[in-house]
Write a structure and sequence with these properties.
Blueprint (H helix, E strand, L loop, with lengths): L8 H14 L1 E5 L4 H4 L2 E2 L2 E2 L7 H4 L4 H4 L2 H4 L7 H11 L3 E7 L26 H12 L2 E6 L24 H16 L8 E4 L6 H14 L4 E2 L7 H7 L11 E2 L14 E5 L17 H13 L2 E7 L9 H17 L19 E6 L2 E6 L7 E4 L6 E6 L10 E4 L2 E5 L10 E7 L2
Parallel strand pairs: 1-4, 1-10, 4-5, 5-6, 6-7, 8-9, 9-10
Antiparallel strand pairs: 2-3, 11-12, 12-17, 13-16, 14-17, 15-16
Helix pairs in contact: 6-7, 6-12, 8-9, 11-12
The protein binds 4-nitrophenyl 6-deoxy-alpha-L-galactopyranoside (JFZ).
4-nitrophenyl 6-deoxy-alpha-L-galactopyranoside binds next to helix 10.
Length: 428
């Protein structure tokens, strides 16, 4: 049994402080699958486009040919970081290696990488890490530590390799760990590592965590280092929470109610993580703001994904929606950054959410009352003052509190139809 570097709660709280303040981050799914974009030999392949090799059982020899065509001349790390910054996002998690096994960084441990195998010959992870540092955005990466459809000892490719002949421990110790040493040595401070789909044994998961801690003690690790959400769901197996720094929800999963502890919801803007040429089901800025607020109101961070094209362009509908989220956050960011889960009970399907910080309850109104009277229930503190967050003068709104019910006199029209924030200053 590998011994783990023990850490006190105070030490972990110090390490998690930026993450608990940040609340809203960007994930970037980009790889050879961005070139196939959900199509193979002219046929649509259903599901997440980053899963196309598995969905279409594409032999490695065939799939590898994509690298020869991958040349994202439109890629500009500064522009991507600017999109995140203007959206109000505080950290970026970019794909280093996804299940396809193709490495989006310069590595000595395989030639199946963007510098050696493509006409592009640049290291986008290096450029993104640099651009993030310049803009004060924290940088992290996604690394598929178990599922690898290219590597002979990786998990998941049963159409080229016979599982019985595969040696996962050899793959982890002679390939994964050496690559993690490159990633945790050559790209500056790594704020977070997003492992995925779990590690076959908790011993190996602990070994991996120990290895990361030795190289970068402050890096934040998600529960998908140990837990495979699919298996987790079926067998209620160990959650990986004890090995990791926070619990990763399932994809696009926002909990129905408030849950204690550090957790994160990864979400897509359309219905695929990677670029999918025919998936135009883009979420609007309004929908994204309400999902962000609801996630935080229930105790989580919101990690929102973009899937750039093979040319290196973030699709315009994504940029537009993210711009709208940024505009809302420039007015209402106080109710999000560093805010905690709702201190008041909010039954599901209630047209408002609540976040809290420093003796203030931020009531996020998604549906404005027709009668200028807005009621908030289960307010478990005495309310001293009520005002609109967007009102620079914070002029007080009339209200009446009877027990836990607070009825507020609000303006005729909603100052913000997406989410108007009314602040309740309460006695602690
Ligand atoms: C995984 C990846 O397979 C997928 O390609 C993407 O990278 C996503 C962020 O993570 O997919 C999952 C992982 C977990 C669940 C669903 C999809 N889950 O818990 O339901």
């Amino acid at each position: 049994m590998v011994s783990v570097i023990e850490e006190t709660k105070e030490q972990q709280d110090r390490r998690m402080a930026w993450w608990r303040e940040a609340r809203f981050g960007m994930m970037i799914h980009w790889g050879l699958y961005s070139l196939s974009a959900g199509m193979w030999k002219g046929t649509c392949v259903l599901g997440n486009s980053e899963w196309i090799q598995q969905r279409a059982r594409i032999p490695v020899k065939e799939y590898e040919q994509l690298a020869k065509e991958f040349n994202p001349v439109g890629f500009n790390a500064k522009e991507w970081v600017q999109v995140a910054k203007e959206a109000g996002m505080k950290w970026i998690v970019a794909i280093a290696k996804h299940h396809e096994g193709f490495c989006m960084f310069d590595t000595k441990f395989t030639d199946y990488n963007i510098v050696k195998a493509t006409p592009f010959k640049r290291d986008p992870l290096k450029e993104l890490a640099e651009a993030c540092r310049e803009e004060g955005i924290r940088f992290g990466f996604y690394y598929s530590q178990t599922v690898d459809w290219h590597h002979p000892n990786g998990v998941g490719n049963r159409w080229d390799y016979a599982p019985a002949k595969q040696d996962f421990t050899k793959y982890l110790r002679e390939y994964v760990k050496p690559q993690l040493r490159e990633l945790l040595t050559n790209y500056g401070p790594i704020a977070a590592i997003w492992f995925d789909m779990g590690t076959p044994t908790s011993e190996l998961a602990v070994e991996l965590k120990q290895f990361v801690r030795e190289l970068q003690p402050n890096t934040i690790i998600s529960s998908r280092i140990a837990a495979n959400p699919f298996i987790l769901r079926r067998y209620r197996a160990q959650s990986g929470r004890d090995i990791a720094d926070y619990m990763s929800m399932g994809d696009n999963e926002i909990p129905e109610e408030r849950i204690e502890g550090d957790r994160e919801t990864p979400d897509t803007i359309n219905e695929s993580w990677a670029y999918k040429s025919y998936d135009h089901n883009w979420k609007s800025a309004g929908t994204l703001v309400q999902k962000l607020v609801t996630t935080i109101s229930r105790g989580g961070n919101y990690l929102l994904n973009v899937g750039p094209t093979a040319e290196g362009i973030i699709p315009e509908p994504c940029v537009r929606s993210l711009k709208g989220v940024g505009e809302w956050l420039r007015v209402n960011g106080e109710s999000i950054y560093g805010a905690t889960a709702s201190p008041i009970d909010i039954p599901p399907a209630t047209p408002y959410q609540c976040t809290a910080k420093g003796g203030k309850y931020y009531i996020h109104i998604f549906a404005w009352p027709w009668d200028r009277k807005f009621k908030v229930s289960s307010v478990n503190s005495e309310v001293k003052r009520v005002y609109l967050l967007a009102d620079p003068n914070h002029s007080k709104l009339e209200f009446n509190q009877e027990g836990g019910d607070v009825v507020i006199s609000v303006p005729d029209k909603a100052p913000d139809p997406i989410d108007t924030v009314v602040v309740l200053e309460v006695n602690k």
